[in-house]
């Protein structure tokens, strides 16, 4: 999970860069939201900005975690999804 966050932050920093120099305070950690008991890897993520939700495909759990950005918690876990992507 750490590597996914670091990779995503690195890509975003590069996209926000001007002439190869990252703007000061371009990215800042706002909160850490525990995802619960996840076995294996996290495969894909999707965001619904209007509802402030992040959907996390938990591949080896055969589930999808729904993260509520506003309350900074897991809102729901959709189970019995075979190979979520």
Structure in words:
The chain has one helix spanning 2-16; strands at 42-48, 53-58, 63-68, 73-78. The chain is of the alpha+beta class and 85 residues long. Strands 1-2-3-4 form a 4-stranded antiparallel beta sheet, with no helix packed on it. A hairpin with a 4-residue loop joins strand 3 and strand 4. The two termini are 16 Å apart. The model has no long low-confidence stretch (mean pLDDT 80).
What are the defining features of this structure?
85 residues; 18% helix; alpha+beta; four-stranded antiparallel β-sheet; 2 domains; 4 strands
Outline:
With 85 residues, the protein is an alpha+beta fold. Helices cover 18% and strands 29% of the residues. The chain is globular, with a radius of gyration of 15 Å.
N- and C-termini, Cα separation: 16 Å
Mean pLDDT: 80
**Order of strands side by side in the largest beta sheet?**
1-2-3-4
Judged by helices, strands and strand pairing, the structural class is alpha+beta
The low-pLDDT segments are none
Q: What is the 3D form? A: globular
Radius of gyration: 15 Å
Number of strands: 4
- What pattern of helices and strands is seen along the backbone? HEEEE
**Helical fraction:** 10-25%
Strand content is 25-35%
The helix count comes to 1
Largest sheet: 4 strands, antiparallel
Integer count of domains: 2
